[in-house]
């Protein structure tokens, strides 16, 4: 009996310890779950503005608005913003924009601000959402890119010069990273061996063209392209220039006049016409023969009846 009671008491003690451990684990799990919920990141609205210049003549701004929550980013749709140049006043307003389904909005610098744009070498863009100021420190220094081509000892070279404006002077822009290549449908195909190039202290860089003999237009022209992406000082720059370094593309005007499978019905291959007409005549010939045999059988039946 004593042994039985001892075993029962030991079982109760073991059960009590097990329940205590389970309660502790459950409580810890609840605490961890609560802690995770408390540490859940807050949603933050981020507005980005970028400046773009095309061929040293066309300037436009691209605004992007997103809601960031942890690693998740959601575009802000149909939200209105106002963009200003240098100061938030009606006289310096660039445009009123509204984001699209991707949270983006694009606007060009209006002609009314040309005088203000030309008056300074550096400008600050201000973005407001209603009365709330979103961006007021996005500054851009005016710059320009010059493309020059040369052929030396049969080697074709692209010479790039980038200048920045300081006051009324144009000075070399050093340490500017860019892509130099040939514009294709999928992007810019690098002209040399490197993916990107950087200007030296004189604001220049020279690239020997390795990818030559590419298909061009009917005159053999290809489009050379120089692109600066997201530079902190100059923004996004793109300059393109034609060069007669490609292979002329010839168009065969008689291509669709030949008898091929992809030609019009009036240029169907003769063998296909013969095959189609043979099948049609065979089917209709068989049907006519069967009809003729039916009439013949009917006529024989009448003769047999008499």
List the topology elements:
Blueprint: H1 2-38, E1 44-54, E2 58-69, E3 72-75, E4 80-85, E5 93-98, E6 104-108, H2 114-118, E7 122-129, E8 132-141, E9 143-152, E10 155-166, E11 169-172, E12 177-184, E13 187-190, E14 197-198, E15 204-208, E16 222-231, E17 235-243, H3 270-305
Parallel strand pairs: 1-17
Antiparallel strand pairs: 1-2, 2-3, 2-6, 4-5, 4-7, 7-8, 9-10, 10-11, 10-15, 12-13, 12-14, 12-16, 16-17
The percent range for helix content is: 25-40%
Question: What is the tally of helical segments?
Answer: 3
CATH architecture call of one domain: Sandwich
Rg over alpha carbons: 39 Å
Number of E strands: 17
CATH superfamily membership of one domain: Immunoglobulins
Order of helices and strands: HEEEEEEHEEEEEEEEEEEH
Q: Unreliable stretches, pLDDT < 50, 5 or more residues?
A: 1-8
What does this structure look like?
The protein is α+β, with helices and mostly antiparallel strands. Among the domains are: 44-141, Sandwich (Immunoglobulin-like), CATH 2.60.40.10; 143-243, Immunoglobulin-like (Sandwich), CATH 2.60.40.10. The chain is 25% helix and 41% strand. The protein is built from three helices and 17 strands. The termini are far apart.
Give me some keywords for this one.
disordered N terminus, 3 helices, 306 residues, alpha+beta, Immunoglobulin-like, single chain, 4-stranded antiparallel sheet, 9-stranded mixed sheet
In summary, what is this structure?
The protein is 25% helix and 41% strand. It is α+β, with helices and mostly antiparallel strands. Among the domains are: 44-141, Immunoglobulins (Immunoglobulin-like), CATH 2.60.40; 143-243, Immunoglobulin-like (Sandwich).
